[in-house]
Design a protein that fits this description.
CATH topology: UDP-N-acetylmuramoyl-L-alanine:D-glutamate ligase
Structural class: alpha/beta
Helix content: 25-40%
Number of helices: 7
Number of domains: 1
Number of strands: 14
Order of helices and strands: EEEHEEHEEEEHEHEHEEEHH
Shape: globular
Largest sheet: 8 strands, mixed
Length: 272
């Protein structure tokens, strides 16, 4: 049985709720601001441990109250935080999330300590094993992500790369990932860039998800907030694959986790 090692980002999430998103140059009023926990890496690490895997998070926080609170929160969920680092002089990453009345969101990220991740941090992956899964989003410097993919490929570990936020990484890098996970918009950007990915898993919203010839349905839910649904999917997928389950079983479990995620506000469950 392998582990899920998430090499990624975290952020304090500032949520603003409004009837509709503002247009360029427009001011709209929101409800009271809400402070939550997010960042693709942390969301995925929490999802992985909740799905039954040993979940290790490699990332950085600022030496501020938000960072120390986040470390304690991850540990309370059961995420292994022994490879995390507190960075002096850098703020913990922050995301501002605009939610409209239909539950759709727009997100702006200030990476802070996340972008202090460098090539030296690859040493924290030196014990990768063949049955491990290295899970990464693209909220870190792209050269560091690319180097981590190569490191994992050399070890024989499975790499799952969530190509979000989208960037046209070299085709040779994406070819080492199994799978590359994208949503419909990111899949369109891949196609426009002329990049072919041998192992591509596309999430399709209410139409489920597709990985090659395999397609599974979504789970019908009442949407409260779509923030973090893709992260819940990725973390659960990685967990179930690390536990030796088939792609179809892993995808069905991931769809169920994504459905549960949109039923509550915020990217992560409110309590550990």
């Amino acid at each position: 049985m392998g582990r899920v090692i998430v090499f990624g980002s975290l952020s304090q999430d500032l949520h603003l709720h409004m009837d509709r998103h503002p247009l360029t140059g427009e001011t709209v009023m929101s409800e009271d601001i809400e402070y939550r926990f997010g960042g693709k890496g942390a969301n995925q690490a929490v999802a992985a441990v909740r799905a039954g895997a040993e979940s290790i998070f490699v990332g950085k926080v600022g030496d501020d109250p938000q960072g120390h609170e986040y470390l304690a929160r991850l540990a309370a969920f059961g995420v292994d935080t022994s490879r995390m680092e507190v960075v002096a002089g850098a703020p913990t990453g922050t995301a501002i999330i605009y939610n409209d009345r239909d539950g759709e969101n727009m997100i702006v990220v200030a990476p802070g300590a996340n972008h202090r991740m460098g090539h030296a941090d690859l040493d924290k992956l030196e014990d990768l094993r063949r049955d491990d899964v290295l899970l990464m989003p693209l909220e870190l410097p792209h050269d560091v992500v690319t180097a981590a993919v190569h490191r994992a490929a050399e070890s024989g570990a499975r790499v799952i790369l969530n190509l979000a936020p989208f960037a046209p990484l070299p085709q040779a890098v994406l070819a080492q990932c199994d799978p590359v996970v994208v949503n419909e918009y990111e899949a369109e950007l891949l196609e426009r860039a002329g990049i072919e990915v041998p192992s591509l898993l596309q999430t399709l919203g209410t139409r489920g998800s597709r990985w090659g010839e395999l397609q599974v349905p979504s789970v019908p839910v009442t949407v409260v907030d779509t923030t973090g649904a893709g992260d819940a999917y990725c973390g659960t997928l990685a967990a179930r694959l690390s536990l030796g389950e088939s792609p179809e079983v892993a995808m069905r479990a991931a769809s169920e986790a994504a459905a549960r995620c949109v039923e509550h506000p915020g990217a992560q469950p409110p309590h550990s």
